[in-house]
Amino acid sequence: MDTRDLSLTAIFAGLYAVVNVVQTMLGGPITYGPVQLRVADCLLSLSPLMGWPVVFGVTLGCLVSNVYYLPSLYGAFGVIVFIDAIFGPVTNFIAASFMLFLRKRRLLACVVGGLLVGTIVGGYLWVLFLPPEILGFLPIWVASIASISISSLIVIAGIGYSLLTVLSKPNIIEPLKSRGLKVLPEG
Questions:
Q1: 48-82 pLDDT, tens per residue?
Q2: Domains of the chain, with CATH numbers?
Q3: How far is 44 from 114, CA to CA, in rounded Å?
């Protein structure tokens, strides 16, 4: 990593954290909790375009936003704060890394990233927030994984893939490349 990569990592970390904090201030409980629609997760979709700086940036940004905001929601030393502060960033790292490795098939990369986030986060959040059953017959862990997966697919494979497609257009990418931005080849 050179200075430009470190700068880009810092930009993505800050952007991820700020978007989460602003969304929470404006949108209430849909950023954190048993139902999560984190708009900042659309940034994960840029890892196939810009590489490791995005992977590290969304990981660090998730850590910063979780450590900053979760204590105010759930108490400074709560189990939720500790678990989500650790597993949230790890999840972003795993999902963005997979998306980077699948960069030659960008839509597939975004779908896989959304499903990874949904499965991992949904797999631990249900223990923290919800009772063991819902509707008397459906295990809550299934509902939790499905809920987080659907919202992650909307943000990562929907919004994120659209953002990736727009930013990959030559009239947008070429001026950035001419100023030194490293961009990974699509194919």
A1: 999 999 999 999 999 998 887 665 555 555 666 67
A2: 3-178 (1.10.1760)
A3: 9
In terms of DSSP H, where are the helices of the chain?
A: 3-27, 47-50, 52-74, 79-101, 106-129, 140-152, 161-167, 170-178
d(CA 90, CA 130): 22
**For residue 134, what is the DSSP state?**
E
Query: What are 9-40's pLDDT values in tens digits?
Result: 999 999 999 998 888 888 766 766 667 888 99
Rounded alpha-carbon distances, angstroms, from residue 141 to 1, 13, 31, 46, 149: 39, 30, 19, 29, 12
Query: In terms of pTM, does the model score above 0.85?
Result: yes
Q: Bridge partners of 73?
A: none
Report how far residue 137's alpha carbon sits from residue 134's, in angstroms, rounded to the nearest whole number.
6
CA separation for the pair 74, 181 (Å, rounded): 40
